[in-house]
Amino acid sequence: MSVPPAQLSQINIYPIKSTRGMSVSRTWVSQQGLSQDRRLMVAKRDGTMLTARTCPQLLNVNALFIDGGLRLTYPGQASMTLLMDDCSRATLGTEVWGAHFEAWRTTLQADDWFSHIIGEPVFLLYAGQRPNRIHPEMQQALAFVDEYPALLISQGSLAGLNRRSQRINSMAQFRPNLVIANTEEFAEDGWRRIKIGEVIFAVEKACERCILTTIEPETGQFHALAEPLATLAQFRAEPAGGVFFGQNLRALNAGVLEVGDVVEVLETQAKATYVDNSIDNSIDKSTLNTASASFEVGAYKNVSITLNDTCIAANNQQTLLQHFSQQSVDINSGCRAGVCGACKVTLHAGEVMQTASRALSAEDVAAGNILACCSRAITDVVLTSVAIKGSSIP
Ligand code: FES
């Protein structure tokens, strides 16, 4: 029996960074990435990028292409139409993972609409048809993508993850632009240059995954046990930190992609090797409850958190790191999921509930170190920072 060729099985576009994606059957691709992908982004009034890492409710925003713009919907809120011709010509300085550039404001109505969702005054920004952001190494204009113009994952890799995981993870959690069928698991790790439809892509770099993957697409809630990062950490982790899933791509020419296009591998490369400490969980998961695991933090309670000399008002429902981020307390962080260890702090007084501790060594535990991203204060707590280099996750 002949083996079917590797094929493009899904094309996903995310018109607004961190909001829900839409699948299309064909698209135009240029060196900037997929047409209309991440051309818009929500930002604080000072231009600070907002993503679902800290505002998971963004994942419940749906965008639909209409003539001249987008139709936006969000549960419990009136829908809104954004017409690009109505957008302001005013610019605002913004930043995506260390890249500073000027973007354009959109409309007051869009600003208000997103402010209502986020719970504070925000702007909806537009990168423009020719964005001002230039990737320093690629010398390529980019809109609001994280670092590379496109992300590819094979269905084989998702099956490989799910074989090791106790739950069924969905492709939507990883937000790929291109999904490939009919490959073995992690075949894409060994590709250097591929051709899909009219477009040749350079496979640039494995994609380092963060807490965004742990948000349940259906509920917009973080998975309490940080899955799938917890399983990925068992077999896709680098010793220096970070877990990897999917490959970042850069288009070398412009052209059309269509679902069903065959993937031609033009050049291969040696696959990165990861230590595999996973176990085979290929049981029938069809009857498992794949919703977030729950854990008891108790009734809502106000507490105080003191980090070094700064004391902030907090509660027992959110993690220490969430409180620090919201109140602009400076602290290292990376994966936000208990994997990288960047957010270690030392607990001197009080009690916390910690839901993951795999990034802590025996010495850390003996020293009273905890992970701020996985710990909630259940009483007033006193903490100090641990001097560490920080994660490679930006
Ligand atoms: S931010 Fe990575 S372990 Fe907390």
Listed once per kind, the bound small molecules are: FE2/S2 (inorganic) cluster
* Strand arrangement in the largest pleated sheet: 2-1-15-14-18-17-16-20
Strand content bin: 35-45%
Helix content: 10-25%
Biggest β-sheet strands, sense, barrel: 8 strands, mixed
Structural class: mainly beta
Q: State the end-to-end distance.
A: 46 Å
pLDDT averaged over residues:
89
Poorly predicted runs: 288-296, 389-394
Q: How many strand elements?
A: 27
The gross shape turns out to be globular
Q: Radius of gyration in whole Å, from Cα?
A: 21 Å
Provide a count of the helices: 5
What does this structure look like?
This protein is mainly beta and 394 residues long. Among the domains are: 39-142, no CATH class; 302-385, Beta-grasp domain (Ubiquitin-like (UB roll), Roll). Helix content is 10%, strand content 35%. Strands 2-1-15-14-18-17-16-20 form an 8-stranded mixed β-sheet. A hairpin with a 2-residue loop joins strand 9 and strand 10 (99-105). The chain starts with 6 loop residues before the first strand and ends in a 9-residue tail after the last strand. FE2/S2 (inorganic) cluster is lined by residues 333-336, 338-343, 359, 371, 373, 391. Residues 333-336, 338-343, 359, 371, 373, 391 line the site of FE2/S2 (inorganic) cluster.
